[in-house]
Every structure is written in C-alpha cells, then in structure tokens.
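fold description:
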Amino acid sequence: MSDSMQKNRGGAPVIEVLFPEYGNQAGDNGNVMYLRACLPNATFIETSHGAEPYFATARPDLIIMCGMTERQQKTVIERLRPYRDRLAELVDDGVHMLFTGNAPEVLSRVIRDVDGDSIEGLGLLDVEVVRNMASRYLCVQVGEFVPEPGAAPLEVVGFKIQFTQMKGDNSSTFFIKDSAGWGLDEKSVLEGFRVNNLIATWIIGPLLPLNPPFTAWLLSQVCGTDDVTLAFEEEARAAYEKRLKELKAPGMHLAY
C-alpha cells in the first residue's frame, strides 16, 4: 500500500485544484464538480493565479488541473515554473495527479507553434507539442486502461478537440491503448501518459463523469479504500454503457 493510501485510511482526502478559473474549457471543470459530488467530506484547495500552490509546502492526496486556453497555458507554465522541482519530487513520490484536456502540455518539454514561436514547458513529460491554430484535430476515444499489471483492463471513453499533435515516445508510459481514436498523434494508438501516479490525458468529455469505472478506481486510490460511492452512480453507469456502445460503432469517428 502506498504512503498516500496509508495516510488517507480513516481520513478525508485533500485535493488541490490548480487554476480553477482557467480550467473550464470544453466543460473540463466538470471533473472537479464531479469529484466534489463524489467526495463531499474531502478538503478542496483551489490554487488561483498569484497564490502559492498548496503542494509547495504540503503533500495533497490528489492534484488536478483541467484544460484551458492557449494564452492561459503560457501563464500557468510561468506561475508553476518556480515549483517545477517540487512538482517533479511529488511525481516521484507517488502523489496522485490528473491533468486533462490540454493541461498535459504544460508538463511538456516545449510547445512549438508552426509559425515558429515556442514556449518552454515544465519538462516533466518527455514530449514535444506541435501547435497549429489553423488545424483542429477531432476524434472519439475508446481505449483500455490497465490499473496494475495483471489487472482486468477498464474501458475509457471520451473525446478529443485540440490544436496540437505530440512528438514523443509513450510506449512504456501510456495512459490508455485506443481501439477507437488516436493517441499522441494521429498515427498513434497510445494515448496520454502515466508516470507513477501522474495521469496526463488529452481526453475531454469531461473524463470523470463519463467514466465511472475509472473514476471509482481513482477514488479508491486517493481515499485508500475500495469502499467508495460515486455520485449519481446508477445514471452515470447507464450513460457510460450507452456511450461505450455508441462510440464503438463503425464509422463513429467519421461522424464526429
């Protein structure tokens, strides 16, 4: 059992939401809204622009950041740069983190625009982001997430709407293996990154309300117990099963 799981057993988790005023693109703030509904006794700490992150001097049980605009990405990178080493330390230490939408790009080595401009990222993920604001990349997502070696995979569904393609190798650190949609770029079937307990995915939808099996797993890890209750669980699971069937339909990616 991880240190965080031992610490949490019998206590409510502490969840840090990074830049909630930014992380609301494409409904991505729905991830935090759903966490609040699932964990009414948890402590949620919102780190806004100009504030020192809670993680700078403490160890939250989950750090979450959702998708934002491209201009806000640059701001967030510069706000987090002084804490880059501390964030890397927490990744190495196994703190649970979830970065969704385009938030993973903040963790990249560099974001390069096709017009030649570039932004140095935090360098926690060994990936280069290529951004083309004249091209919008769309796809549906269905893929398998393996919680741990030998465990039964969980199917994850969602969508992608982005201006970026990634250059990098996530063959040993991917989040899901796609059966529908694409991964780091349109030629890849390996989506996102999983480094220790950091999960970085470009999936929107938002991810957590759309995927009750994955969300139940994540909450069990963060809370240190399998006895977790999902908000609106019956409705969420019914919607998930319906969406899973629909997104697997042949040609669905073309319709989207």
In short: The longest strand covers residues 137-145.
